[in-house]
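Section: Multi-chain targets

For targets with more than one molecule, the full set of components is provided together so that the structure can be written out for the assembly as a whole rather than chain by chain. Components appear in the order listed by the source. The example entry contains two components.
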Amino acid sequence: MSASVNRQILLIEKPAGKLGPEHFKLTEAALPEPKEGEALLRVRYISLDAANRAWMHGATYRSAVEANTVMAGGAIAEVMASNAPGLAAGDLVFGDTGWQEYASVPAKHLTKMPKLEPMTYLLSIYGIAGLTAYFGLLEIGKPKQGETVVVSAAAGSVGSIVGQIAKIWGCHVVGVAGGKDKCHWLRSELGFDATVDYKDGAVFKALRAAAPRGIDVYFDNVGGDILEACLPLMNNYGRIACCGAISQYDGVPSAHGPRGVPGLIVVKRLVMQGFIVMDFMAQRDRALTELQAWTSSGKIKVQEDVIDGLENTPKALIGLLAGENRGKRMIRV
Amino acid sequence: MSASVNRQILLIEKPAGKLGPEHFKLTEAALPEPKEGEALLRVRYISLDAANRAWMHGATYRSAVEANTVMAGGAIAEVMASNAPGLAAGDLVFGDTGWQEYASVPAKHLTKMPKLEPMTYLLSIYGIAGLTAYFGLLEIGKPKQGETVVVSAAAGSVGSIVGQIAKIWGCHVVGVAGGKDKCHWLRSELGFDATVDYKDGAVFKALRAAAPRGIDVYFDNVGGDILEACLPLMNNYGRIACCGAISQYDGVPSAHGPRGVPGLIVVKRLVMQGFIVMDFMAQRDRALTELQAWTSSGKIKVQEDVIDGLENTPKALIGLLAGENRGKRMIRV
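Its structure, encoded as tokens over all components, is:
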């Protein structure tokens, strides 16, 4: 409370190609005064997500981030002072605080969070990552027992939970991830049935071997070549849950879309469906109840990758886009 | 009945590039004897469909057509003699007779058709074309009153019916077709609200002008560039009914898929869903009842393009792939 300086990270330039540290700047500002309807927040944990990079391209499901403003990002924060009914000092909230130590945010853009330990779970298994995995797999992918589920970016925050929920559902689960170590971890620690290391080349052949009965549900975090490789392996009436397109976010977007669209979509009667987790928030309580039960019984192992220091946020996002992390990456501010 | 010669058209070679008359040969064979469980058929009208060309690429929802066999194709035919229970001389059936005057076909692969006039309606509005339009638009596209529906190959057998059903549903209907004449016909005769002539270039701009409130349902018969142009214009929660990919059937398949897949699918929460009309056959009676009511009340105008003579079948298919036809093209044998 006695702090008078607010450290912030600005996006000083929107990247034309790959994102680098030169696109950011650490700066200092005065503590923001909460206006009517706002709360002054102390940011505790900043969520790092591939979507942060996508926001730099232009308006998506949210407005684009602009150069020379505090970089946008979701975070868990503590209310320091409130000018809004329903929020009081000491409350814990989730919201888009941006990459800074303090923020004044309208209460209507904040979601009150329960106090539980570890607090990081509010960003991983009980946060956007866990809910995205839960709703995307179950409501969009609609897996049935015995079906084959493939998930890309399988070692990431969402993918690692998707695969574990699919195992709870009794599916044959294949994870696509980069590198032998991640693949080994997915199989030995998280219970995936098979993995495909996309850095090893020959993704299509490896996928075909890992999914010998074809693919019923493909949970797509990456788009591009891996989506293209999955299409010919989809079974009739298969479902592709389109969660993200990480392969397209950092650098120049791909010159082409996946071959097989829409030819294979027609012939195999596939459903490709995009979703944003916010659309499911009315069902949030049900999801949290199930996720909590699975976590406390050990059916889901929560993997987090917590990095200290606001000043490390740019580097942490750049690393995430390069696939450094296992599970949910976040910054402890 | 007294004929002893069966004129047939063989596919003598699978085309590597564009389909031409050189890939077919007219030949003569003896009348086929119906085996146990088969009926001997006199073919009356052969259906011409862009899908005929797709079958030459390999197995789709049916096995691939092979070189040096009678070219596959659906037809309305009359039973001459039957070795199968449930079928008798004089019955009218629909089935894959192939491009020939007579065929012996297992009864289980035939659908008995009502006797109505004109008989050609069994291939157009009450046949695969009408049912494809009906189920694809209503079950996959799920249009609501006031929404914007775009249909490609709009002057074709399926597209021309899709647009008219969408008008009955109270939608703003945009047809994409090739050439000023077809576009004028769609607006003045079939009641489309707007059209886009893809031969005129600048499809994206023209689509944007024709669909000023964005696209809620895109009924896709063509894939490729027109699908790509529609994606950025789709409204959130829009539906893309994937019916065919005509643009990919004749000649070398496109080197790339549509850009925007899956990025725009995610951000706009779109559903892309492929379908084959056969999947809806349990609901056929309901569809026919509605289609008959709309046709007899004049809400749907049936457009057919009937060409005489088995020998003209190759030319008629080649012309269809080039976009010559308006409405349902067929051969009177």
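Chain B has two domains: 5-124+303-332, 128-278.
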